[in-house]
Design a protein that fits this description.
The protein has about 230 residues and is an alpha/beta fold. It contains seven helices and six strands; from the N terminus they run βααβαβαβααββα. The structure holds farnesyl diphosphate.
């Protein structure tokens, strides 16, 4: 039987630190390996026909990590943007970043803006990177954007135009490394998303693991609060 492929997959890429620790390596090696894992996962999601991939790369709470680790993650993102530009243009990847733009180093935010602009008409997949992102911050920032007229006309369907993006809600949320919590990720958008948790650490999350997540998604009976049609 043909598989039902989710239109939008969102991932909490957890476990880079544990992956490194298990090998007696510094946490930064785990993040570097995590970036490779993202590259491969993106390729496979394109192949199977996923249209939106959102990944949690840096949360508003991640500033509490050591200065060293924060700067590793900033540098890694900058490197990722520079090294993936060609691949994104060639493979029709639209690059987008969701999150607060303040606090981010100027050169990084300039590269983000440039790549977003250059890839904006690419239409094979949208790679939405949640960076300096918090779900609560996103809701607060949305409210701050609204005028009085917007508030008067506000409803559940038009609220998303004030969020960091207006992409369709995720169908499937994946969390690696076994924790069953949402960690301030996409609080508004996941109202009816299916959830899949695996013990696999993010750097080990490969095609086989993606297939398992999609298979599990295919067994779900999505009712969006309604009743099952029999
Ligand atoms: C969680 O693992 C992961 C992060 C906080 C960062 C995610 C970043 C990447 C996958 C790097 C590549 C992505 C980009 C776009 C640069 P953790 O450090 O919390 O792991 P632990 O829970 O095992 O300590």
């Amino acid at each position: 039987m043909e598989k039902n492929i989710p239109n939008h997959v969102a991932i909490i890429m957890d476990g880079n630190g544990r992956w490194a620790k298990k090998r007696g390596l510094a946490r930064s090696f785990g993040h570097m390996e995590g970036a490779k894992s993202l590259r491969k996962a993106l390729e496979y999601f394109i192949e199977i026909g996923v249209k939106y991939l959102t990944v949690y790369a840096f949360s508003t709470e991640n500033w509490n990590r050591s200065e060293d680790e924060v700067s590793t993650l900033m540098n890694l993102f900058l490197k990722y943007i520079k090294s993936e530009r060609k691949n994104m243009m060639k493979n029709g990847i639209r690059f987008y970043v969701s999150g607060r733009k303040n606090n981010i180093p100027k050169n990084l935010s300039e590269e983000i803006d440039r790549l977003q602009e250059d890839t904006k008409t690419n239409n094979k997949i949208t790679l939405n990177i949640a960076f300096n992102y918090g779900g609560r911050a996103e809701i607060i920032d949305a409210i701050k954007k609204m005028s009085n007229a917007d508030i008067e006309n506000l409803d559940e369907n038009n609220f998303s135009q004030f969020l960091y993006n207006d992409f369709p809600d995720p169908d499937l949320v994946i969390r690696t490394s076994g924790e069953f919590r949402i960690s301030n990720f996409l609080l508004w958008q996941i109202a009816y998303s299916e959830f899949y948790v695996t013990d696999t650490l993010w750097p080990d999350f490969d095609k086989t693991e993606i297939d398992k997540a999609i298979d599990s998604y295919n067994k779900r009976d999505r009712r969006f609060g309604g009743v099952k049609n029999v």
